[in-house]
Amino acid sequence: MDILSLFVVIPVLTITAILFLKDMKQVRVVSAIGMGVQLVLAAVLIYMYLTARHSGNTDEMLFVKDYIWYKSLNIHYAIGVDGISVAMIGLTSIVVIAGIFASWEVEYLRREFFISLILLATGVFGFFISIDLFTMFLFYELAVIPMYLLIGIWGTGPKEYSAMKLTLMLMGGSALLLLGLLGIYFNSAPGGGQLTFNILEISKITIPIAAQRIFFPLTFVGFGVLGALFPFHTWSPDGHASAPTAVSMLHAGVLMKLGGYGAFRVAIFLMPEAAKELSWIFIILTATSVVYGAFGAIVQKDLKYINAYSSVSHCGLVLFAILMMNKTAMNGAVLQMISHGLMTALFFALIGMIYGRTHTRLISEMGGLMKVIPFLSVCYVIAGLASLGLPGLSGFVAEMTIFVGAFQHPEPFYRGVTILAVSSIVITAVYILRVVAILLLGPTTNDHFTHLPDAKWYEKISVVTLIGAVAAIGLAPLWLSNMIGISLQPIVTKILAITPF
Amino acid sequence: MSLENFLIMRQELLMVAVVLILLMAEIFISQENRKHISTFSVVLFSLVTIAGFFPSPSGSLFGGMYIASGTTTIMKNVLNIGILLVIIQSITWLRKIENSEKVSEYYILLISTAIGMNYMISAGHFLMFYIGIELATIPVAALAAFDRMKNKSAEAGIKLILSSAFSSGILLYGLSIIYGTTGTLYFSEVSKLFTSNSLQTLGFIFFFSGMAFKISIVPFHLWTADVYEGSPINITSYLSVISKGAAVFVLVIILFTVFTAIVKTWQSTIYVVSVLTMTVANLFAIRQQNLKRFLAFSSISQAGYILLGVIGGNELGMASIIYYILVYVFSNLGAFGVVTAISNQSGKENMDDYNGLYHTNPKLSLIMTLALFSLAGIPPVAGFFGKFFLFTAAAQKGFYLLVLIAVLNTIISLFYYLLVVKAMFINKSDSPIEKFRSDFPTRLALGICIAGLVITGFASVIFDAIRNLSFGI
Amino acid sequence: MSAGIPVQYFLILATVMFFAGVYGFLTRRNLITILMSVELILNSVNINFLAFNRYLYPHKMEGMFFSIFVIAVAACEAAVAIAIIINIYRRFTTINVEDVNEMKF
Amino acid sequence: MTNFGYTIWIPLLPFLMFLLLGLAGNKLKAKLSGLLGTAGLAVITILSYFTAYKYFFGGENAEEGFQKIQAFNTVWLNLTDKLHIDLGILLDPISVMMLVVITTVSLMVHIYSLGYMKGEKGFERFFAFLSLFSFSMLGLVVATNIFQMYIFWELVGVSSFLLIGFYYTKPSAVRASKKAFIVTRFADLGFLIGILILSFNTKTFDFITLTDPSGPAFSQSTSAAFMGLSVMTWSMIFIFMGGVGKSAMFPFHVWLPDAMEGPTPVSALIHAATMVVAGVYLVARMFPIFSLTAPVALHVVAYVGAFSSLFAAIIACTQTDIKRVLAYSTMSQIGYMMLALGVSGYGGHEGLGYMASMFHLFTHAMFKALLFLGAGAIIHAVHSNDMTDMGGLRKYLPITHMTFLIACLTIAGIPPLSGFFSKDEILAAALHSNKLLFAVEYLVAGLTAFYMFRLYFSIFWGKDTHYHHTPHEAPFTMTIPLMILAVGSIVTGFIPFNELVTSDGKPFESELELMVAIPSVLVALFGIGFAYLLYFKTNGLPDKVAGFFKYGYKWAYNKFYIDEVYIFVTKQVIFRYISTPIAWFDRHVVDATMNLIASTTQNVSFRIRDFQSGQIQKYAFVFITGAVMLAILFIYFLN
Known about the structure:
The complex is a heterotetramer of chains A (501), B (473), C (105) and D (639). By secondary structure, chain A is mostly helical. Chain A has helices at residues 3-19, 24-54, 83-102, 110-129, 133-144, 146-154, 159-186, 199-204, 209-226, 235-242, 245-270, 272-298, 303-324, 327-358, 369-372, 374-387, 394-407, 412-422, 424-440, 457-475, 478-498; strands at residues 62-70, 75-81.
């Protein structure tokens, strides 16, 4: 068994183990163990990856395994990782374990909850290790569908509506995506020969530009829906608001990254010509996302809505950077995915914990929580600071890489739009501080809140893990950035071949 | 008739034998042994099914009126699996007191239709085809009206028989025109003599309408929902899976072999009707409360997706259709199996009755969910693969817009499938369906369905084997 | 079949019968009459087959055979249909097609 | 040159202290954590002094003047092939000078806080934040590249935010901290954009490369232009915008007076002596570029500085909150520094303004910290910020009184105190460059003397106020820093800045220009005298004067309604006219469109249900119609 497949096998084994458990209490323990193993495995993978690179392995993808699956269509179960996927896998395993701990006290249908959660994780892990478009798409859908049950069963508020909306919109995205993938597949051998779903092989050829013009938008929008591309983001506020804590964490933290990762790995990597040609449309859309999401967040009253809109803004930045199509901006995009994944998970974890205590998410009904639950409040402030791009935390690293990278674009239009996107950092500061000020600072407004308990041990584990990761990236980003940067080289080379910067 | 000939036609002949045996049994068997008829039929039919999988010669009989090839064999096998599942699922229902007198009748009629289907799949001549199709339809009408005491059943029966007679009339009129313009009814000769003049096009359209009726394609589908709702559930599942599947197979074969001269015409026809079928059926399905009716519309929309495999006229298309029907057998029979089980137990068929089902009957709910996900094309169950291949087949010939419409339609269909899931998992109910344990046949059938759903998807052998036996224009 | 009658006459007759059948099917209220209309359609087909066979392809008998089979099958169909109509009458105490309308939408 | 490696500890030590106090602070005893923080700072103060001595007097600088020394540099983040963010330590005259300033004031504030903050809840948190601030500020001044500067720029911003909002249960403090952060953040946006433009054109962040007159910044100067100004000018203006925000220049000054909600030692450290001069430092750091490639931007600097200093001085005359008076005074003094930079040239005597600005920065740090700490001692004694609650305090607080007086005299520019020398250089520089600005600064000098002594007289003389508790002198931990800083205020004027801190690193000759000095002292004395008349004894004169200016007074008292403008922009424009519509749009247009698709589907689904009428004849009708339609379609249209 190769190490990459383990990332799919372990969750499946964990699910199987949970299925046969008799004692409900053990469910969460087993889940935590399973996902803990996964986390360790991710660390091992990162180590192995770095060692391999260090020893001079310059392959585009490492640990490649290729098993033929559907011979007649040349579908393979092909896996492999580069620095980007390794980073995303690391992110996923951190968020998943934090999510498990954050949902330690789920009572209702506990077994089913953890199974769905881990199933979702399986899809995500599978997606990140795939280098075959079919497998990738399979895992993509696998990751999306448990959301329905997770939100519908364990959610709050108008959960059925939100769950349905979220699922249908994401599936709408995947519908477009499917079309895009088929288009890529049938154009993967323009000179004749075997059609293929393998990303690496397709990247070696040039898809005819006429086809690219059709399939690039489909693929990009398809992934973009999951990446909260304006105007297809509206599932995000409702979905996040209704979802239970861990689901919001995983969804915003990891699942939305599938969109960015896919847009990058499939849409841009395979169809750079069309991407270049059409990027201006999407640049406008994504820049709109960035600013629009931030402005939208300012006036929200519900904590989760604020964070959902903020995610729209931050994820918009990911797609924005990807479209800038240079190494730095793309590096920033990946960093932003990781950074946003961690801090938004952190946010949602904290919001869930606060909600669990105050039973409201309306900021107007809360106030002065810093005095009552200092640990959670301080963590919330840290999350906020990370979100508004404080140096020393991951957000800064990612955003600055994006901005500098995007600003290297040779065309003034793109640089102008970059400045527009940059301005979001102020708006972000406004809504973050507004929340912090109303929610945490000031006198404690509600007498009911004066005796709230602070974080429990499992909540602390969840939160501290995430903060640790956020700070680690923020303080020492170089290794991560380099790891990503090296892996970006093939695509950059490919883009440079079109029009040198 | 030499052994060779027997082997070529073995599936039909074996079925005829089964029917005869059952007829004899009906006459000679004692009253107390009657309850074993079901088991007996299942055993017999499983033998038939298994026999179909043995390698056998291909060839033609009756001067080319009957043709057997690898493709037809695998089509028949797929159908046989489905029929076997239906037979197993029917046992519980047939054990009911009001049906005890009609058990062997039921099996005889059912297997007769199967014979008809097999003949029409293997037809090399329109006469054979016509006889097959009628043999496959008329007994079903009797089966639809099987519940003599129920108004709805009678209504379903009359609607089916009249509509199908009408559609046969239209189809025959089309055939007569084709005959008039070509002077022959052999597939191989018709295909040579067929051109695209107006009269022949008219003949083709009438023929196609008749076939579309069997597959229940919009706008020829209107009988479907009523008949499905009124018929006994097992007949509904039979109609929705087996009858439809057989008709699809025949349509594919005829389109691919006979009407090759007017590919453009039938592609456009299929384009139009498949868009209509998917959209209209989905729109109707959204509102349905009765699960049988709901699944009826769902099966109509599935027919729309299946047409995507037909439209390309390519080898991949045929392979994906056969594969999809196989998957569809498992998924739809899985869903119907759950509906049957619950209906047998509690008589409830409405979606509201399923509220909170997960809390009382988690296994049934899970099976239902997987089956519905498979119908919707959600991984990891096989429906995902099936849909993917269908769409691939259409995309291969450049029908991207059609694929787009289809995938957008899958979203609508996902919506209503999720409504059922929502009812079972999320909704609360004051009077949920009691917890119960199904009897062995039901569990067996559902187990096969689930195993099929999982295995068919991941075991690529199946698809590759089908692919090797398929052909395009 | 007098040689003096051109084939068109038969075809026109068949077409008229066909549409008469269709019209009858669509407008009659009595289930039995509807069944009769179906028979009309089938018989128009038969005429077609026979006329084609006799006039255009007289050396082969396919059309003849086909119409024989159609007649046979129509008989079966009628048998089953009438059985069901009887059952309808028992259940609904009417054979007016508009009253057989429990399931819709 | 290489043996400055140890300087890495100067920023690092406070950072470690921050981590220690921040993570384990609540486990330690409050007092211990305070002492730890102070001890850490003492160590780096010594290191800084040692560095300064070694740098300036170590004899390494030959005839070519003081070199920029990169004591340490490491890549923190790779951006493009050429651009990379480094973290490092750059030693040159101004950074070394700043090290001295920061560590000195910070140490004083640490010591002072041991007394001032005693018994406060969150004592260790306070020291943790102070350490964080010290770390950030030190990191800022030793930055080897502009991006490092930006990083620490943000960090000082956040430490300032944390410290202003130290009393987080007090709504006004929360508001003030929020305001400070957002306003400076907005200015930082400009900084960032400036960096982006600059780095895009020069392909480097590195200060040494950037400020090298033969480097890429200078070859770019005329390359591209936008709206009549070269890209370098634009980038410098944007970068200066960051400085405007951080240094509380008009129009981004609004946060500074409110920032006085923070504990007084914080005001002394951050909002008087160190952080607010970061803007000045930034311009000084980029000075060669400003001066040689973007003179227009430098003009902007000069005018913004001049206007701010006048503006603030006028407001300061009307305020009654002593910390706010000091805050406006800070703003005014920083305006001086900006002006000095703005009128300066590059190299030799031309760079007089540059030198003067740095000189004033240095002296200002001493006396303004002294003023704030003194104010703290007064507030500590009186438990009020408002000078109308005070009077005759000289009897109760003798040490505070003396040191405060020294500080007031210094800021007023009375010789031989340090303020006199530095201000004189600034005026001289202005005189040589721009007469209008020179005149403005003269006026401001008079106003400064007036409002400072207004403050002084109202607190220590004036009416004999009756106090609930007899005010008592602060403890030693507080008075000792006062005395040290007082000494500093007196003697620092004699430091030969023209030999040490100059625009090109080379010393130049400069002497007291009596033509400038004598009138300026006279103006100051006039101001003091006027204040004496009005405030030495309680009388009705102040009201009469106020009545004389009437609307002018009212406008100045209300800070020219700039706050209201800000509130309008944020509350009305951003919240009501941008965000609320966007949020509405999102729900009712974008989301509604998605929902509309869904509801349309449902609606259509309901509309077409009559097709399924249950009537078999209708079914057949549809059937035959469908067939005929298809036939017509394919025979007549598509064939």
